Amino acid sequence: MLTLVRQARRRLFNNELLTQGANAASAALIAFILLLLVGTQILSWQWAVLIPIAAAAAGLYRARQRLPGLYSVAQLIDRRLGLSDTLSTALYFHESARAAQESSDVRELQFAGAERLSRTIDARQAVPYIMPAPFTL
Predict the structure, then answer these.
(1) Closest among 64, 56, 72, 73 to 22, alpha carbons compared
(2) pLDDT tens digits, residue range 23-75?
(3) Do residues 27 and 48 lie in contact, with contact meaning Cβ atoms separated by under 8 Å?
């Protein structure tokens, strides 16, 4: 189950990297167009290189900041595949300190059920790669 949730989280991160990569590519094109329009006297080639690098670094930072936790990813998988909170409940019982107060039999049954279910699920079903939305002002 943890493997499935981690794979889905990685796919979410890759989706975000695609989005931020598109933004960085747009910044690179804008820098190149400005260089062509304004001329080499005003805008040097260093700026044309620095702007896309800064955009890529900002995009990587944003993608990292927007990466959800494992529990949120488990909730997303449950919601998208109609699993009735099976994975997220098992993950909660697995990671939460408060869950230690619950019956160990209940926790083990929930986790075993989620493990069985997760073997039948492909992370690509839960988190498909999507084309980034076009940039609008």
Answers:
(1) 56
(2) 888 877 887 787 778 766 666 677 767 877 888 898 899 889 999 999 999 99
(3) no
Contacts of residue 40, defined as CB under 8 A and 6 or more positions apart, other chains included, come to: none
Map tokens 């796919």 to a residue: 11
Residue 130 vs residues 5, 124, 125, 134: alpha-carbon distances, Å? 18, 11, 12, 12
DSSP at 127: S
Residues in contact with 30: Cβ distance below 8 Å, sequence separation at least 6, in sequence order:
51
Report pTM.
0.78
Tokens 């449950």 belong to 78
Helical axes 86-95 vs 2-38, angle rounded to 10°: 100
Label each residue of 35-103 as H, E or C: HHHHCCCCCCHHHHHHHHHHHHHHHHHHHHHCCCCHHHHHHHHHHHHCCCCHHHHHHHHHHCCHHHHCC
Q: Which two tokens stand for residue 113?
A: 């059920």
Give tens-digit pLDDT for 63-115: 899 999 999 999 999 999 998 888 998 888 887 756 566 677 788 888 888 99
Residue 4, both tokens = 């499935």
